[in-house]
Amino acid sequence: MTKVLQFSESEYIQHHLQYFQLNLRTFSINDRGGFWTLHLDTVGITIIAGILFFSIFYYVIRNFSSERPGKLQTAVEIIFESTQHMVKEVFHGRNTLIAPLALTIFVWVFLLNIFDVIPVDLLPWIVQCLFGIADFRVVATDDPNFTFALSFSVFLLVIFYNFRYKGWRNLTREVFTFPFGIWFFPFNFIFRIMEEIVKPLSLSLRLFGNMFAGELIFFLIAMLPWWIQWTVGSVWSIFHVLIIVLQAFIFMMLTVIYLSLASTSDH
Predict the structure, then answer these.
(1) pLDDT of 29-55, one tens digit each?
(2) 202 included as an active-site residue
(3) Pairing assessment for the beta strands 28-29 and 21-23 based on DSSP bridges
(4) 29 phi and psi, to 5 degrees?
(5) What phi, psi does 233 have (nearest 5°)?
(6) In the annotation, is 210 catalytic?
C-alpha cells in the first residue's frame, strides 16, 4: 500500500488512473486516438489472467488424484461442481456450452479482480523498473472498455440463442406481442429493445463500478501515514475479497440467466 512515487494527493490518484495506451492510427505510445486507442495494460493483464487460468486447471488435470487430492485440486473441484450445479438449476435446457462458459467467466473475472488486492504501487513499480513504462493499470475490470466488451460478447450470445432456440417466427411474435398484446406492438418492440440494451450495460457498469470504487479506496489508503496503512489496508482487503468473489459470481449468474431466458419462450 505504500506510496512509492512522491506526488501530491491529486497527482498520485491521477497517475494511477492513466492507462498505457497505443494509438492504432499512428502506432504511437500514450497518444490518445479516441475510439482507436488500445489500452495495452488491460490487454496484457487479461492475457496473463487467461494463461494463469489455463495453467491452474491444466496442472490440476495432469496431476489429478482421486485417492489423495491436494488443496488446489479440492478447490478446483468445488468450483467446478458448484458451477455445474448452479447451471443445472438456472439454465432450463440442454447445452454443453453453458457450464464451461459459466466456469470460464467466473474464474477469469475472479482472477482479473484479485489483482486489486495487490499493493497499488507494487506492480506499476515493477513494470516501470523492467520496461520503463510509467503509466500502467493492473486491474483490467476497472477499465469500462473491457467490462463492456465482455458484456457485449454475452449480448451477442443472447441474440444467437434467441434465434437458435426460438426461430425467426417465434422470436418475432414474442418481440411484437409481449407483454401488452399485438395491438400495442410498437410499445412491445420499444420495450424489448430497451430490455436487450440494458443487459450488457448493467453487466458492464456493475462490474466496473464496484471494482473502480474499491480501487479508489486503496488509493486513499495508500495516502495515509505509513504506520496505519497496513492495518486499514488489511481490513479493507479482507472485505474487498468478498466483493471480488461476489462480482465474479453475479456476472456469471446473470449471463446464465440471460441465456436461459433466450432459450425459452416462457416469460
Answers:
(1) 877 767 788 999 999 999 999 999 999
(2) yes
(3) antiparallel
(4) -80, 140
(5) -65, -40
(6) yes
User: Which residue in 55, 63, 82, 202 is the catalytic one?
Assistant: 202
Strand order in the sheet with 28-29: 28-29, 21-23, 37-39
Quick check: pTM over 0.70? yes
Q: Which of 23, 30, 206, 265 is catalytic?
A: 206
Buried b (16+ CB within 10 A) or exposed e, 109-142: bbbbbbbbbebbbebbeebbeeeeeebbbbbbbb
Q: Give the pLDDT of residue 28.
A: 85
**Of 151, 210, 237, 263, which is the active-site residue?**
210
What are 211-222's pLDDT values in tens digits?
Answer: 999 999 999 898
Q: Give pLDDT tens digits for 73-109.
A: 999 999 999 999 999 999 877 788 899 999 999 999 9
